[in-house]
Amino acid sequence: MYEFDTNTRIAQLEQKLRNQRRALIGVALMAAVMVMAGFVQRDQGVIRARGIVLIDEKGKERILIGAPIPAARNRVRTDLQRVERLWAKRFGDPKQYMRWYADYRHTMHGMLVLDENGFDRLAIGDSTPDPNIGKRIGAGPGLEINDAEGFERTGYGLLTVAGKDRVTLGLDSKRGTEGLTLTLRDDGHTGLRIDGDSGRAIFLGMTPTGFAGAKRDPVTGLVIRRGERDVHRLSLDTVPPRK
Questions:
Q1: CA 129, CA 142: separation in Å to the nearest integer?
Q2: Which three-class secondary structure state does DSSP give residue 220?
Q3: What percent of the chain has pLDDT over 90?
């Protein structure tokens, strides 16, 4: 009789625990629904976060979104050992390059896409990171596209330099330097510049400060240059008006 009562009591307690567990799960689900409903009602479905990191099927960080963007373990730009090994030797003195690199801007407010090797490939935001060959002359929103080794190949943006804005579309050469640049600036400079090897360059447009921003005669027309010397200049500023 005693054994029967004990077993019955244990069975009753187990049943009560199961019932309580079901009740707690139900309450938790109801609370979650109420919280989500309140969240959606207050923020109208908007997700608020400082940063988001999207990973690929191998667990590597591939898309960084934030204000500023979150850190990524496999990002080359913020791994100084990889920077020195992959980039520094290309610019003569590796130690000097690393000293310059210490002042480069790597963060941004916006979205950054990395490839599977950790190189920056696409940056959209304000302000975008500096190229790995030097600091930008100004800050501002833009879009930058890099090659498979992290060197900038094209970009479009609005830069503020010395308090004046300039809208620029640039296509960079394989050397990482500008190859073709279309610029419109608040100081009156508007034109297309083409840069080649051996210091050869062509400018077509209008500029009050001279070709390439040098303190020279204004240009409204065409200038062909080799090094620091103009080899051909056709400008309305130097043509006398017809009588």
A1: 10
A2: strand
A3: 56
